[in-house]
Amino acid sequence: MDKDILSVIERQEKTKRFSKGQRRIAHYILENYDKAAFMNAVKLGQTVGVSESTVVRFASMLGYDGYPGMRRALQEMIRNRLTSVQRIEVAKDIMDSQDILTTVLTSDMDKIRLTLEELDRDAFDHAVNALLTAKRIYILGLRAASPLSSFMGFYLNLTAENVRLVSDTYVNEVFEQMLNIGPGDVLFSISFPRYSRRTVKATRYARDRGATTIALTDQLASPIAENADIKLFAKSDMVSFLDSQVAPLSVLNALLVAMSLKTEQKISDTFERLEQIWAEYDVFEKTER
Q1: Cβ pair 61, 22 in contact under 8 A
Q2: What are the residues whose beta carbons fall under 8 Å from the beta carbon of 239, sequence distance 6 or more?
Q3: Cβ-based burial of 208 (10 A; exposed 0-12, middle 13-18, buried ≥19)
Q4: Cα–Cα distance measured from residue 186 to residue 75, given in angstroms and rounded to the nearest whole number
Q5: What is the CB neighbour count within 10 angstroms for residue 270?
Q6: Distance CA 137, CA 211 (A)
Q7: Is 173 helix (H, G, I), strand (E, B) or coil?
Q8: CA-to-CA distance for 131 and 256, rounded, in angstroms?
Q9: Burial code of 11-27, b = ≥16 C-beta within 10 A, e = fewer?
């Protein structure tokens, strides 16, 4: 399947295989792909004046396994094309008349479900083993992915001494912090649309230096996936000017839990000492029961 659905539509249109109704769908998508990407089959049909079944047949003619497959292709295509302002406008059109809380939370649940169904279990196990046996672990997630990398770094730093969280600052450039990465080390890269160019280049650098590279991203076509030895995919979708990171966070949760279960005694000893320190220095607020 062509990566660019608009090219697929234009090519099919030139062959004149579309019916009159299908041509109306094609013209609307070509001119309004940002809006069409978030319409269901009924809504798209109503918008262009055709039946739902015509929309479904149109998707099948393009080679997709039903309308949901075509809509996902549209959504994946636009995520790197739309500016933040355009995203806000699209979200306004979609959500103005809806229960936003229900819409967003339901969408997040769907992303976790799809991630669970599609995640490569062997790749997940390889990632766990690579992290546990690494000489040094570098964690890299810039811009919108920085909360995910900080989360992972926070918990790994509690239980290991070989973790380096690569920060995104002017004082410490990414490549300077990764200068000595090499064989035996692991770089765990996190990036989702719109992909960080520095993350892509840093992942390539780490692989060229002989480190094992693990990528947490959204799809095989992601630019950090091509330089990753181990690829973990999690669903992330556009929500107004931001992207949902719920599913990627769940994958990180699973990785951390899996690692802890394989080093159970060490983790228990570490947290026993931490609890003593936290109590001695009043780290947490005491609450009445």
Answers
A1: yes
A2: 91, 104, 107
A3: exposed
A4: 32
A5: 15
A6: 10
A7: coil
A8: 10
A9: ebeeeeebeebbbbbbe
Q: Which of 155, 174, 173, 175 is nearest to 163 (CA)?
A: 155
Residue with tokens 């912090």: 177
C-alpha torsion 193→194→195→197, nearest 10:
180
Residues listed for the chain:
289
> Which of 190, 219, 215 minimizes the C-alpha distance to 72?
219
- Name the CA dihedral angle for 165, 169, 171, 173, rounded to a multiple of 10 degrees: 70
Residue 183 buriedness (CB in 10 A; 0-12 / 13-18 / 19+): exposed
Of 172, 224, 170, 180, nearest to 202 (Cα)?
224
User: What is the full per-residue pLDDT of the chain (289 aa) written as tens digits?
Assistant: 445 788 888 888 777 678 889 999 999 999 888 788 878 889 899 999 999 999 999 999 888 888 888 888 887 777 666 665 566 566 565 555 567 788 788 878 988 998 999 999 999 999 999 999 999 999 999 988 999 999 999 999 888 889 999 987 655 688 999 999 999 999 999 999 878 999 999 999 999 999 999 999 998 889 999 999 999 999 987 655 567 899 999 999 999 999 988 877 777 788 788 888 888 888 888 776 6
d(CA 32, CA 90): 10
Distance CA 288, CA 41 (A): 54
CA dihedral 207, 216, 222, 199 (to 10 degrees): -60
Tokens of 113: 């479900």
The Cα–Cα gap between 28 and 47 comes to 9
244 close to 109: Cβ distance less than 8 angstroms: no
